[in-house]
Structure to design on (520 residues):
C-alpha cells in the first residue's frame, strides 16, 4: 500500500539538514532589554495623551442651548438613546443583520427611560424648590396625553430657545410645567449636580457611567469636540487618538468598512461590519484548513525571500 | 510489569509531558539551519513587549486608576504602557504576516496557528478595554461610539462598555489572563512542534 501523498500546503518536509547554535535565553534577554529601552525612549520623547474628561457641567456651561435642546428631546423621545431599542428600551427593533434582530432577541438588560432617568428623576432629587415642586406635582397629576401635548408644544417652539442671564427661555404656549423642567435641569447641569445624579443608582460608590455617557452623547457638544480631534467615524476615528498620537491602528480594517459602500450608507452598518469582521476572523483562524487560501503563501513565494539563504545553499 | 506507581495520574502526566516536551525542546541550544531571517525576531519581540506591557500595567495597578492623571511619574508609567502596547501590536502583526507567508501551519502546526490568531484577537479586546478604561475624554468618545457596534450584536447587554468598573476589571484581570495563557500555550506548541521548515523547492516551483 502506497504512503499518503505529500500535500504541500498541509505537510512539511522533514528537516534533514544541519543545525546551528541557538541560545534561547540570551535571545529573550536581549529582546527584553531592547524593547524595554525602546519603550522608555518613546515614552520620554512623546509621552501619552490625557485630555481631561468632559462633564455634563462643562457641556451645559459651554453650550447651554445644546444641552437644553437635548433635554427636551430626551422627553419627546427623539434622541439616539430614547429611540435606541435593546439593550436600553423597546423604542425600536435596533439594527438588523438581514432578518436577524440580535439585540432585540437578547432584550432590554440595561433599562433606560430617558424622560424619567435623564430629566424628571434628577429634578426630583433636587432640594425643595416651590416652583419646581409645583411643576412636578402638576406633571404627575396630568394624563399621559396631556404630558405629551405639553412636551410637543415646547418642542414645536424650541427653535426660539435662548439662554440669557442663566435662564433658558422658549416662546412656547400651553407647555405646562415643561419650561420649568428644562430651565431647572439646565441650571442643575451648570452647577455640576446633574453629573452626580446621573451616575448609576445614585449610590455613594459607583463606577458605572452608562447614564451620563448616554446623555452626553445624545447632545452635539461631545461630537463637536471629537471632530476637532479627528475622532469621528467618518474620519477613521476608531484607530485615531487625541492630539495625533497613534491609537488603535490595528483596527484599521474594522474602521475601513465604515468608509465604503454599502456600509457607509447603511442604517445597519454596525452589525454588518461586526458580522464581516467576525467572518474574516473565523477565516483567519481556520485558514490552515481552507484549500485555496492556504496555498497563497506557496504561490506568492514570499517565503523564498524569508528563507533566501536556505534556497541559495 | 506495570506497578501501582506507574498507574498514578501524576506519574502518567509527568511521563506524557516529558515525552512531548523534553528539556532539550523546551530550552533548545540548537536550531535548524534554515532559521536565519530577521522575520524570526518579531515573535520574541512580541513576547518582550508583552512583558513590558504587563510590567508597566502592574505598576499602574499599584497606585490605582487615578494616579496617572494626577502624577507626572504616573503619567510616565502610563506612557510606557501605551508605547509598549504599540510595539507589541506592531511586532505581533509583522510576526503574523511572516508566519502566513511561511505557511507556518504545515506539518501538524494548525493548533499553533490557531492559538496565535486567538491570542491576536484577545489582545485586541484587551487593548480596547484599556482605551475604554482611561477615564478621560478619549475613553468617553471611544465608549460612546463602540457601544453601538457591540450592542448591535446583542453582546452589549452583558458587556457594557459604558460601565467603567466592568471595563477596568476585564482589562486588568480577565483579558490579560486569557492573553498570557494563550501566549504560553502558543509558545509551548512552537517548542513541541518546532519551527516550520521551508517549502520543498521542487514542490514550490512545480505547483
Amino acid at each position: 500500500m502506497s504512503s499518503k501523498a505529500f500535500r504541500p500546503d498541509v505537510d512539511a518536509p522533514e528537516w534533514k539538514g544541519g543545525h546551528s547554535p541557538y541560545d534561547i535565553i540570551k535571545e529573550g534577554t536581549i529582546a527584553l532589554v531592547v524593547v524595554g529601552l525602546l519603550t522608555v525612549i518613546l515614552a520620554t520623547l512623546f509621552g501619552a495623551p490625557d485630555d481631561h474628561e468632559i462633564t455634563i457641567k462643562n457641556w451645559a456651561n459651554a453650550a447651554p442651548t445644546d444641552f437644553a435642546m437635548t433635554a427636551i428631546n430626551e422627553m419627546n423621545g427623539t434622541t439616539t438613546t430614547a429611540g435606541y431599542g435593546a439593550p436600553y428600551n423597546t423604542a425600536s427593533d435596533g439594527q438588523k443583520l438581514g432578518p436577524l434582530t440580535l439585540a432585540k432577541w437578547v432584550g432590554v438588560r440595561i433599562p433606560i427611560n430617558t424622560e424619567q432617568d435623564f430629566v424628571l428623576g434628577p429634578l426630583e432629587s433636587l432640594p425643595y424648590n416651590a416652583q419646581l415642586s409645583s411643576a412636578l406635582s402638576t406633571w404627575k397629576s396630568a394624563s399621559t396625553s396631556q404630558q405629551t401635548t405639553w412636551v410637543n408644544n415646547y418642542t414645536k417652539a424650541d427653535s426660539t430657545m435662548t439662554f440669557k442671564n442663566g435662564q433658558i427661555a422658549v416662546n412656547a404656549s400651553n407647555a405646562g410645567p415643561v419650561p420649568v423642567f428644562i430651565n431647572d435641569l439646565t441650571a442643575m447641569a451648570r452647577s455640576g449636580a446633574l453629573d452626580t445624579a446621573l451616575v448609576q443608582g445614585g449610590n455613594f460608590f459607583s463606577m458605572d457611567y452608562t447614564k451620563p455617557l448616554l446623555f452626553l452623547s445624545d447632545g452635539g457638544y461631545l461630537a463637536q469636540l471629537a471632530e476637532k480631534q479627528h475622532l469621528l467615524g467618518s474620519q477613521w476615528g476608531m484607530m485615531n487618538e487625541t492630539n495625533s498620537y497613534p491609537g488603535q491602528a490595528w483596527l484599521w480594517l474594522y474602521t475601513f468598512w465604515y468608509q465604503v459602500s454599502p456600509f457607509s450608507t447603511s442604517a445597519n452598518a454596525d452589525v454588518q461590519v461586526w458580522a464581516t469582521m467576525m467572518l474574516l476572523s473565523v477565516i483567519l483562524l481556520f485558514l490552515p484548513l481552507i484549500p485555496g487560501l492556504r496555498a497563497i503563501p506557496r504561490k506568492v513565494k514570499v517565503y523564498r525571500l524569508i528563507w533566501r539563504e536556505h534556497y541559495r545553499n | 510489569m506495570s506497578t501501582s506507581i506507574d498507574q498514578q495520574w501524576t506519574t502518567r502526566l509527568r511521563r506524557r509531558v516529558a515525552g512531548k516536551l523534553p528539556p532539550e525542546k523546551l530550552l533548545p541550544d540548537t536550531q535548524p539551519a534554515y532559521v536565519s531571517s530577521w522575520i524570526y525576531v518579531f515573535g520574541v519581540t512580541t513576547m518582550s513587549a508583552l512583558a513590558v506591557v504587563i510590567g508597566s500595567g502592574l505598576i499602574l495597578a499599584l497606585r490605582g486608576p487615578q494616579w496617572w492623571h494626577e502624577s507626572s511619574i504616573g503619567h510616565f508609567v502610563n506612557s510606557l504602557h501605551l508605547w509598549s502596547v504599540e510595539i507589541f501590536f506592531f511586532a505581533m502583526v509583522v510576526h503574523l504576516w511572516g508566519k502566513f507567508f511561511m505557511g507556518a501551519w504545515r506539518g501538524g502546526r494548525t493548533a499553533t496557528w490557531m492559538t496565535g490568531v486567538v491570542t491576536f484577537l484577545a489582545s485586541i479586546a484587551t487593548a480596547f478595554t484599556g482605551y475604554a478604561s482611561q477615564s478621560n475624554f478619549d475613553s468617553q468618545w471611544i465608549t460612546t461610539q463602540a457601544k453601538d457596534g457591540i450592542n448591535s450584536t446583542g453582546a452589549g447587554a452583558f458587556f457594557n462598555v459604558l460601565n467603567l468598573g466592568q471595563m477596568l476589571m476585564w482589562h486588568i484581570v480577565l483579558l490579560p489572563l486569557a492573553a498570557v495563557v494563550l501566549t504560553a500555550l502558543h509558545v509551548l506548541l512552537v517548542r513541541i512542534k518546532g519551527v516550520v521548515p521551508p517549502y520543498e523547492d521542487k514542490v514550490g516551483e512545480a505547483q
